[in-house]
Amino acid sequence: MNLNQARASLNTILLIAGALITGPALAEQASSQNTETLYLQQCAACHGPDRLGGMGPALLPENLGRLKKAEAEQVIREGRPATQMAGYKTILNDQQIAALTDFIYQPPSHELKWDEAEIRSSREVSHPLGSLPDEPVFEADLMNLFLVVEIGDHHVTLLDGDKMEPIHRFPSRFALHGGPKYSPDGRYVYFGSRDGWITKYDIYNLKVVAEVRAGINMRNIAVSADGNYVLAANYLPHSMVLFDAANLEMLDFIPVENDTGESSRVSAVYAAPPRSSFIAALKDIPEAWEITVENREAKVRRMATDTLLDDFFFDPGYQHLIGAARDGKHGVVIDLDTGKTTAELPLPGMPHLGSGITWEHEGRRVMATPHFRAGAISIIDMDTWEVIKTLKTEGPGFFMRSHENSRYAWADVFFGPNADKVHIIDKQTLEIVKTLQPEPGKVAAHVEFDRHGEKLLLSIWDNDGAIIVYDADTLEEEKRIPMNKPSGKYNVWNKIHYEEGTSH
After folding, report:
1. Residues 383, 390: contact at Cβ < 8 Å?
2. Residues with Cβ < 8 Å from 231, sequence gap 6 or more?
3. Given 185, 232, 260, 325, which residue has the most CB atoms within 10 angstroms?
4. Which residues contact 315 (CB under 8 A, 6 or more apart)?
5. Which residues of the chain fall short of a pLDDT of 50?
6. Quick count: other Cβ atoms within 10 Å of Cβ 162?
7. In the chain, what are the domains?
């Protein structure tokens, strides 16, 4: 019996045991505030006795931040389709389900620890590097593949970008975040989950080849330009962790602290290919870090910032970091060579700079960003660092996308009352030329182009959702592919060549 089988058997035993003591006995436990016992009986087999996760995700306030209490209660009651999370409505009463929900949204009484020893012991290598065939088991343009994250039931679909047909669908960890990152040749992809798991997947062989848990609550991961290293950025613990990309062996554990010992979450980390480094912004300390790898160890260069930073963006030459201030009112431009702030940008409404895009406009490079809290898109001259235009949208947005071969940029209004609409912007006139409503009443979000900029994919962000294929020139719908709440889509070519219209 393997570990997963053992856990499944234990879960079954505990479910049976829980069923035998349902009713008044468990109600009395809940009413006497002995909810922890209830958790241990019903949840610990999958989510861990310390709530740090196992087969299931970590159940901690930091990890559940984007899941409303009512939604969590519904999951406990009804379960999650196509997962091992069964519904508990026949085992627990409403009072017990409500008590469990409240419990997992409270900080645990015990200290949460995930350091070097825990990281090393979590690593599992199912297929060591070099043990699988070097030829793909399917026929397709390997550079025009898409990975589509389906958050409805925590799966990923591999999509042929020429035929626009699924090749394979496989389960993922809970709550993938920060976007998958490809190896430079496009063969491997690295996923990061909210609860700290890094999964290395071999696209050629359609297999998970290695996994490791880098933290309890992870922000995102980055892969070095040469493909040799993976760097994880954590919210909890306050750390970054460096791995050998080959088999996810931990190389270095980096506490995120300033000179006085104050610690911080990491807002985000991205690779900076021309600099052969990683760049990270800190959430609770006014610093940005440049991390290089020497002799398989991380070397940190600290840059003081004028403000706390959230997500950020780069200019095409990776000379400048453009960061969103955590006050949600402005952005800053930092020269990465000098570490000095060279400009400030008026960007009210919390810009989502990690979703920014750039293009050439009248011989000058401009960038555009949506805003989380304002129905606007800001367009910025990257020579003068001035906002040259603000487009009014139908609500706050999440994502923008384009392609160097397309005349259009696409922007959703994910956080607004009209989230079923998406704007199309002419990159030369800097005007919204069309607004689509592909599925009234259902959220339309996150566009990704194929490698040629000829077709694009748009998500209908719903459990009964779909990927819609559009002609990038005519803007006409060509096809719908049913999917379970598809969120991000990531084209191999665009990601590994840092196409100007896609994300980091």
Report:
1. no
2. 221, 222, 224, 240, 241, 242, 243, 269, 278, 291, 298
3. 232
4. 322, 358, 365, 367, 382
5. 1-32
6. 14
7. 3-104 (1.10.760.10)
